[in-house]
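2024-03-11 09:14:02 INFO worker-7 job=invfold-0412 stage=load source=structure_tokens
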């Protein structure tokens, strides 16, 4: 069809975390500029299946930018060339006819490759399990006005809560640091009254788990924030460091 593109794809293929992987080259014709990047992969997989080859394993769920599953490193950037966009919301009109597109999985010690482009991000779940929650007996929903929250705090908490835990921050960071992710999760609760009771212990436990998982430290390059599809700000990392230091001082004082 007129306007459709022909692409060359270099896609990372790897059977599991214990085997060496490598790039495979594929040619794909008739790619509509209106396809999402994942739909383009669906077409590639149909082509591979028709050829009797194994389709490429890749993660996806919502395909609307909210679950964080569609983790791919595209032409050297997490989620591809656009700012503030997940892979599932990236469209082929962002590429040109005849382009070669290189697709790799997230690369970090704490994100071992399960297969092809799918990595194991259980390390993020374990960081959340360490303290990214509020322990309350829920009961009936209380009146929304009974707990006044300053507008600024509500807005900042909401911005931090926009993190979809995709792991692009880790993939973008030369140190494979998870500080943007962890700081967003700490911030969204530290900014709200409901998060105060466990504020100190939360910061201590989540940071300790982050370190135990093998993520690196932040050296303020800002790649995490620049590549985050939800544009989570580095201010959260500064807040996390303050929360952690405060927690350490108060726990060593008792
Ligand atoms: S598939 Fe859910 S964010 Fe992309």
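2024-03-11 09:14:09 INFO worker-7 stage=emit residues=254
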């Amino acid at each position: 069809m007129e306007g459709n593109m022909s692409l060359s794809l270099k896609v990372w293929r790897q059977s599991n975390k214990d085997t060496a992987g490598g790039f495979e080259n594929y040619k794909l014709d008739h790619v509509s500029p209106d396809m999402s990047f994942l739909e383009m992969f669906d077409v590639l997989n149909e082509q591979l299946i028709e050829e009797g080859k194994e389709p490429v394993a890749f993660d996806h769920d919502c395909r609307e930018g909210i679950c964080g599953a569609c983790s791919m490193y595209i032409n050297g950037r997490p989620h591809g060339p656009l700012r503030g966009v997940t892979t599932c919301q990236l469209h082929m009109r962002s590429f040109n006819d005849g382009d070669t597109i290189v697709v790799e999985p997230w690369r970090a010690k704490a994100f071992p490759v399960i297969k092809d482009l799918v990595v194991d991000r259980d390390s993020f779940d374990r960081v959340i399990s360490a303290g990214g929650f509020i322990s309350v007996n829920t009961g009936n929903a209380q009146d929304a006005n009974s707990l006044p929250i300053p507008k600024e705090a509500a807005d900042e908490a909401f911005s931090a809560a926009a993190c979809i835990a995709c792991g692009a921050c880790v993939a973008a960071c030369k140190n494979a640091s998870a500080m943007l992710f962890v700081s967003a999760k700490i911030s969204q609760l530290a900014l709200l009254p409901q998060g105060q009771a466990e504020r100190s212990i939360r910061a201590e436990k989540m940071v300790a788990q982050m370190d135990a998982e093998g993520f690196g430290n932040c050296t303020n390059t800002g790649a995490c924030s620049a590549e985050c599809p939800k544009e989570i700000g580095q201010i959260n990392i500064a807040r996390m460091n303050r929360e952690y230091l405060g927690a350490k001082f108060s726990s060593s004082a008792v």
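2024-03-11 09:14:09 INFO worker-7 stage=report msg="The beta strands are 5-13, 22-31, 73-74, 77-78, 100-104, 113-115, 118-119."
2024-03-11 09:14:10 INFO worker-7 job finished
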